[in-house]
Amino acid sequence: MDRLAIVVPCYNEEEVLKIASQTLRDVLEDLIRKEKIARDSFLLFVNDGSKDHTWELIEEEHQAHPERVRGVKLAGNVGHQFALTAGLLTAMEMSDVTISIDADLQDDVAVIEEMIDKFHAGNDIVYGVRKERKTDTFFKRTTAQAFYKLMALMGVKTIYNHADFRLMSKRAVEQFSKYGETNLFLRGMMPLIGYQTDCVYYDRKERVAGESKYPLKKMLALAFNGISSFSVKPISMILGLGVFIIICSLLAAVYALISYFTGHVVQGWTSLILSIWFLGGLQLLAIGLVGQYIGKIYMEVKHRPRYNIEKVL
Ligand code: UDP
Ligand code: MG
Fold it and tell me: How far from 38 is each of 95, 108, 116, 135, 306, CA to CA, in Å?
């Protein structure tokens, strides 16, 4: 039987912690009763440097249910992505399969069973995907969807409408741990791992209590980090723009010369306008070209694993 660890990053979640613990423990008990996971499956709360009583509550939960609830206390606030990674890597040593979920229970715990079933059917990663975003505000919904579309446009492979509610097998987490990059954008990294994957669909609910720890500023930072960590397309765009401007400068040259010979111009205009177009294009082209090399260096320094062997016969 596989031992499941449910990893829950928590930042200032004192209002929801007890409810989350109770709900998720019930899920575990239910799955144990149905003999889908091992008896020693557990919850792993990661306290991401909370300023409130979150950690004390985690300690209380651990004392009350030592076999079910475990906790990791990070020394300071490092942000959701790092906190979750800390939890996954800690859980990797102690379990066969992990599920990550937010503390606020916005993600539907009812699909956890389906995730486990899909894991038993041979999937190494099972993504939780939101069907609709009815409960999100109009603002959050449109910005989030624009974000997923922009990512696709920039050539970053992500699962549309999937956040960080996902099941990962031990070997998937192990492969993930080989990605040594510091700028973490988990949603973009998971598809790089490979293996057989599947999705489960659910409706996203409202927060049980408390308020969002992801204000607009953090959302924008996450979006920018996602694109800049996975794509050097913006650099290629500069290069493309340079080429485009140079072509424009040729057209401008034709126009300027015709104007010159038909004599409708002020003296000095022709040479000036040609220099502006041509030099502008040349500069962009040069920046784009240098950028291409920087982009390569950037990808090199990440030292990502180049492949992941699943089986050798
Ligand atoms: N979180 C965290 N560190 C942070 C910010 C958030 O561990 O610096 C956790 C938070 O406790 C929650 C999850 O990340 O479990 C998602 O945050 P939230 O629900 O506030 O984001 P939203 O659902 O509003 O996007
Ligand atoms: Mg939330």
Answer: 10, 22, 12, 35, 34
- Name every protein residue with a CB atom under 6 angstroms from any ligand 1 atom: 9-11, 13, 48, 77, 79-80, 83, 102-104, 106, 212-214
CB atoms inside a 10 Å sphere around CB 63: 9
Q: What is the CATH number of the domain that holds 214?
A: 3.90.550.10
Kindly report the protein residue whose alpha carbon is nearest to atom 19 of ligand 1. 212
Q: Which long-range contacts (CB under 8 A, 24 or more apart) does 133-141 make?
A: 133/161, 133/204, 134/203, 135/203, 135/204, 135/205, 135/206, 136/204
190 belongs to a structural domain: yes
Is residue 299 included in any domain, yes or no? Answer: no
Q: Whose CA is nearest to atom 2 of ligand 1?
A: 80
Give the residue, out of 10, 45, 80, with the most ligand 1 atoms within 8 A of its beta carbon, to mutate for a pocket test.
80
- Residues 245-262 have pLDDT tens digits of 999 989 988 988 898 888
Residue 291 within any structural domain of the chain = no
Residue 292 maps to a domain: no
Residue 8 tokens read as 């829950």
Amino acid at 173: V
Range of the domain at 19: 4-231+305-312
Which residue's CA is the closest to the ligand 1 atom numbered 1? 80
User: What is the distance in A from the centroid of ligand 2 to the CA of 102?
Assistant: 6
Which of ligand 1's atoms lies nearest the C-alpha of 106?
23
Hey, whose CA ends up nearest to atom 25 of ligand 1?
Answer: 214
The number of folded domains in the chain is 1
Summarised one tens digit per residue, pLDDT across range 183-231 is: 889 989 999 999 999 999 998 888 878 888 878 888 888 888 888 888 8
